[in-house]
Amino acid sequence: MPQFKNLLIFVAAGSAAVLSLAGCSSTGGAPAATSASEGPAKTAAVIKGLDNPFFQDMEKGIKAADASITVQAAQDITDTSGQADRLSSLAGQDYGCFIINPISGNNLLQGVAGLKAAGKTVVNIDSPVDPEAAKAANAVPDTYIGTDNIAAGKLAGEQMAQLVDEGDKVAVIGGIAGDVTSGNRVTGFTEGLGSKAEVLATESADWDRQVALTKAGDLLRANPDIKGFFVANDVMGLGVARAVANANLTGKVSIISVDGVPEGLKGVESGELTATVAQYPYAIGQMGAQACQAAAEGQTLPELVEAPVALVTKDNVADAIEAAPAPFEPFENPFEK
């Protein structure tokens, strides 16, 4: 494998949804709302299911910034109504700032509208609310902090382009069909890969390791000459790695995934995965908590905050593991100023 230097980029959220969110923010550069009570505003966070290590790291980042923050989570990645109920319950208590990581673009909008009407600060992290629906409902968060998934996918595509030969077949395993995050990662991957290889039709594996294993096995039987897999998250990537191993193709088929969760980093270290594009839920959670602290101090919140991503290969995975769950290189954090 060619040698690559550590790569860390700071990405402005590039999807249309996120750009629209930034463009329609109601803050207009004014200081975010704060709690009416004296002293630091209490903060609550409602995130996605803690059954996933990605959101476990997000919770760690939130707590690292402020251990007093109340964190509640959905049961799993499909628990849209349960997550909304948790936000509704917390909204009736004396919190001045709310960190939200919605499962869908719409499932927390009713709760956010109520918070904004009450003058509370809302910090949207990781997964953006639907910008048009939020504007219509007067539910636009005060700031958005997250990763540009198109840029993350593009890093993976550029890496894959250096690993395959002209005209090779490359398979793509996405998350839930129609999911914006998965779609943006796949879009970025194909942009980064360009015309270097033949990209097979995307197969959806529902963010599930076992489903990804099955889908990858089917693809390998139908296309035994596949030379690479792009997989939309590490958990599914490890399922693909098992299918590749079952076909006795480990080391002969490149597998690049996205997330950089501990299992994914260990997969790169062991050679199961060729690379992962690490995003940092720990840093996203930490900045979300710091945004609430800044708002409580009367500071103006930026409408859009860039989150770091890094390409992790065999060459730098030891550094990534040592620093995990935090980023292994410095990144720009506007809330530390």
TrEMBL record:
A GO CC term attached to the entry: cell envelope
Family annotation (InterPro entries): Peripla_BP_I, SBP_2_dom
Predominant location: other
Statement: the UniProt record of this protein carries the keyword Signal: yes
PROSITE patterns: PROKAR_LIPOPROTEIN
Keywords tagged on the record: Signal
Organism placement in taxonomy: Bacteria, Bacillati, Actinomycetota, Actinomycetes, Micrococcales
Protein name: LacI family transcriptional regulator
GO function terms (MF aspect): carbohydrate binding
Similarity comment text for this entry: Belongs to the bacterial solute-binding protein 2 family.
Stretch forming the signal peptide: 1-22
Intracellular or extracellular location(s): Cell envelope
Keyword Transferase listed: no
Pfam families: Peripla_BP_4
Domain Periplasmic binding protein: from-to ranges: 46-299
